[in-house]
Specification:
The chain has 16 helices and 11 strands. By secondary structure, the chain is an alpha/beta fold. It has 2 domains: 264 residues, Aspartate Aminotransferase, domain 2, CATH 3.40.640; 110 residues, Aspartate Aminotransferase, domain 1, CATH 3.90.1150.10. The chain has a 7-stranded mixed β-sheet with strand order 1-7-6-5-4-2-3, with helices on both faces. Helix 6 packs across helix 13 and helix 15 crosses helix 16. The protein is globular.
Amino acid sequence: MSTSLLKKAYDSSLFKKEGTDLVNQISQYLSDTTFGKSEKVITWTTPEDEYHFWKEYISDTHTTSDFFKTVIARSIHTHHPKYIGHQVAPTVPVSALATLLSAQLNNGMAVYEMGAASTALERLIIEQFAKVIGFENGDGFLTSGGTLANLTALLAARRVMAKDDVWNEGHSSKLAIMVSEEAHYCVDRAARIMGLGSDGIIKVPVDDTYKMRTELLDSYYDSVVEKGYEVIAIVGSAPSTSTGVYDDLEEIYAFAKAKKVWFHIDAAHGGAAIFSPKYKHLLNGADKADSIIIDGHKMMGTSALATAVVFKESTASYATFEQKAQYLWEKNEDADWFNLAKRTFECTKSMMSLRFYAIINAYGVQFFDDFVTTLYDAGKEFGDLVKQQEDFEIALDPVSNIVCFRYKTSTGDINLVNQSIRKALLEDGEFYIVGTSLRGEFYLRTTFMNPFTTRTHSLRLLNLIREVAKALISVS
Ligand SMILES: Cc1ncc(COP(=O)(O)O)c(C=O)c1O
């Protein structure tokens, strides 16, 4: 017999009341942040202070409304136009609503009957990606984030390319992958998870513009093969995370074809540019890749996590895993597209396709073009603005919405001064920007993620950095 507590927990009118209150709170959050009404992007607390705050908070009882309100107040506000930090999209509200629906329906997605609508929509979104990329026989699935997506694609590469059947018999040969030294760390991590070790990850240097030096590929390949390695894949970054620079995908393809290695593209950040007539040229050559991954929660406005793994050949999308799970499906050999756990790392996963389709349903795929094009334009405009300032220097001309720059100073160590600026900005909370190290030098790093960030915000950021720098220098 169900208890009164259970009845209360599942009460639909309580849900309506608390849900309406939450929607009102989120609506207020959106109106406070989106056009910059609220003063701060982040209210900084140290990790210890935050832990103690919540420890005390949970020792008392609070309404659901108060709990949600407190979480909003104590979280970073990605919808604020002064949020120009890490590559996480300010979720399009309709995508957040789809995520709420997914969370409440909790369809498990491992097999068709555990998510009929979302499974069919997942196939449709992958078909949409395959079409714009230019894969005639493309196929794939959605998975939980770019990190897992890269690992999944590289496991497929190993399954298809390696002479050994590593999946069933373990390693006997030495395998390697090639990647730019500027690639996201998750590619290195994927290779290590696959047992390639540090010697199996061949990091190719970048040129002055931070692109992989493709003229070095042959010599790097020869020397690794001489050491007894079998190169299974090369990974292009589209773009790499620190600088936002796209590798030359056509050149990488030419190498991959000549050496018969798998060509994978990590387009977690910039794959969405394929929807932008203005910027899709950055992805020239993507149609020749064997696999490509694109994050929805970066440059497509979906809530996290939602990543597409798209393969040029449908059969390859089934290559990664081969396991029997009698309780889920009877025969592993069947390439049944609708039993998604055969192809994804996850067994249970969320109904990610809803996050994309809620946007497409409401605004069409045109939304993705508007989003990416606006943000890439903003990055370039900010780059031009920085170059006009005598007391700032830019690390490189931006090609996307990622801009690395720093305050110039003749007083003190330029790296330490800029590190202190970044820390002071974080603690101040008016803006959120991050930092990165390029060739051993520290730079401030902005990623324009909010389509409502304007030149006025950018000018204010530069002035704030000046004020902070002067204050720092005067006390040192
Ligand atoms: C190029 C690139 N690849 C992969 C990732 C990891 O993606 P996720 O955070 O979705 O796991 C990132 C994250 O910033 C990235 O920039």
